[in-house]
Amino acid sequence: MKTYTLITGASAGIGEAAARLFAAQGRNLILIARREERLQKLQAELSTVDVKIRAADVTDSVTLEHFFTKDLAGISIDVVINNAGLALGRDSFDQYDFQDIETMINVNIKAFLKIAHLGLPFLKKTKGHLINLGSIAGMKSYGGGAVYCGTKHFVHAFTEALRQDLLGSGVRVTTIAPGNVETEFSIVRHKGDTEAADAVYKGFDSLKAEDIADAMWYAVSRPAHVNTELMLVMPTDQAGITVHRK
Ligand SMILES: NC(=O)c1ccc[n+]([C@@H]2O[C@H](COP(=O)([O-])OP(=O)(O)OC[C@H]3O[C@@H](n4cnc5c(N)ncnc54)[C@H](OP(=O)(O)O)[C@@H]3O)[C@@H](O)[C@H]2O)c1
Predict the structure, then answer these.
(1) What is the bridge-based pairing of β-strands 76-82 and 172-178?
(2) Which residue puts its alpha carbon closest to atom 25 of ligand 1?
(3) Is 180 in the pocket of ligand 1 (CB under 6 A)?
(4) How confident is the model at residue 245 (pLDDT cuts 50, 70, 90)?
């Protein structure tokens, strides 16, 4: 029976890099994101493994539920990479657009929990591995990021508790917490303002999405008795939220 790695947010950035690396390691993939044409392109490119794609908004819990319980019924999944997420805006909390706040909570917390909840029955069968995307923002908070930082603190706290819930099940759970990674993350956060987005990565060597995919693969490829609980992966020129720019 084929076994699959399921990745949310696989149409760009870290999720896409993870799809490429896991495929290179011979892993069959189930890829989820909203932009279908990007998933189709990736599916065509990663032809050495079996790639299933599903264009879906992860906040659509009815669709997700149907996909996991009906479309994926009987399929073996041994890794779930709970990666889809976003930040919106850099304003002081009192100035924030409340819709942006709700979107971050809906994607980074509610949909994140739904994926974990739907994925765990599969992982319990395979003694598999759940990888959650945390962040340095889940450990250090900064002004203009109150809600995003809060959502990532949630991911860290949730993973810590989940490890205890799953003791004895053989399921491994890892939080990967990156510092600045150059992806579409900043363009999304700055709502298409490329100048503001580029400024985030100016004057220092930020991480690349592939660096985070490597960290995921490290955690997954340890022997079954080793649970890498938390990996904080930072650019050399970033410590905490302080970046050294040339
Ligand atoms: N980049 C960083 O500096 C950084 C640092 C720490 C942590 N992280 C975390 O890493 C994860 C990935 O971010 P990234 O840097 O790779 O950003 P990215 O390049 O913007 O990619 C985000 C991915 O999430 C998907 N996504 C967003 N909202 C979605 C929704 N409602 N439904 C389905 N898919 C959705 C996007 O796909 P579609 O738009 O096609 O739906 C895309 O594939 C996030 O959880 C982020 O918080 C990033």
Answers:
(1) unpaired
(2) 9
(3) yes
(4) very high
What is the C-alpha separation between 58 and 164, in angstroms, rounded?
A: 26
- Overall average pLDDT of the 133-143 stretch: 98
Token pair for 240: 């905490």
- Residue closest via CA to ligand 1's atom 20 equals 185
**Digit-coded pLDDT (tens) for 110-128:** 999 999 999 999 999 999 9
Q: Is 143 exposed, middle or buried (0-12, 13-18, 19+ CB in 10 A)?
A: exposed
Max distance between CA atoms of the chain, in angstroms, equals 53
**Pair 9, 84: CB distance under 8 Å:** yes
Q: Is 142 a catalytic residue?
A: no
Tens-place pLDDT, residues 198-233: 999 999 999 999 999 999 999 999 999 999 999 999
Cβ–Cβ < 8 Å for 116, 166: no
CA of 199 to the centre of ligand 1 (A): 19
pLDDT tens digits, residue range 26-35?
999 999 999 9
